[in-house]
């Protein structure tokens, strides 16, 4: 049965923002979301049991508690939620997952911030662009985030989530960062945080540790990034220009 199982009923949130961290190109969304969870010591608020997710148990080093692969974390002080995923969502399961989690977002008046990497050759700091559904453009305008310079699309599970938001006409924001297409990209994740997440949510985030640990993050996440490459567009979230299809 599809459901979001709340673990911490005492946590109180008021129309929070949510940062989405599904694996994708450069693992930019996952790296950024994982950093926020660690930096703010966010609480494991809820477990996600939606159709379309793999039925596996996840364990972490020095911890004997098994966890589901997709979880929600909360920081009531900053009125912030984070969606953490340890595994890709299959292309065939993405629509069911998107309908399940989006329904919960709408019910609890959550404004999701969806994250995606755009494979690109970068010069200097990665550029960050924004798209929106519903009244999400208000947040982009307030933060001074510009739309992409080309016509394109966002694929994979994050694309399914944005498609669901468009169909339901609910408020959401999609952030796109230029990213390394082959390896984990902490620099692009930093750009997403500083150039998108922080100005939209109004929170202050220290990214020094993210950059200091860039090499370790690259090593730890490289295997997952390779899996995402092998999985192809169906499971790997990414923004792509339409090019010849325009």
Automatic annotation (TrEMBL):
Chain residue ranges for the region called Disordered: 221-246
Highest taxon of source: Archaea
UniProt-listed Pfam families: PAC2
Listed SUPFAM superfamilies: Cgl1923-like (SSF159659)
InterPro entries in alphabetical order: Proteasome_assmbl_chaperone_2, PSMG2_sf
The name this protein goes by in its record: PAC2 family protein
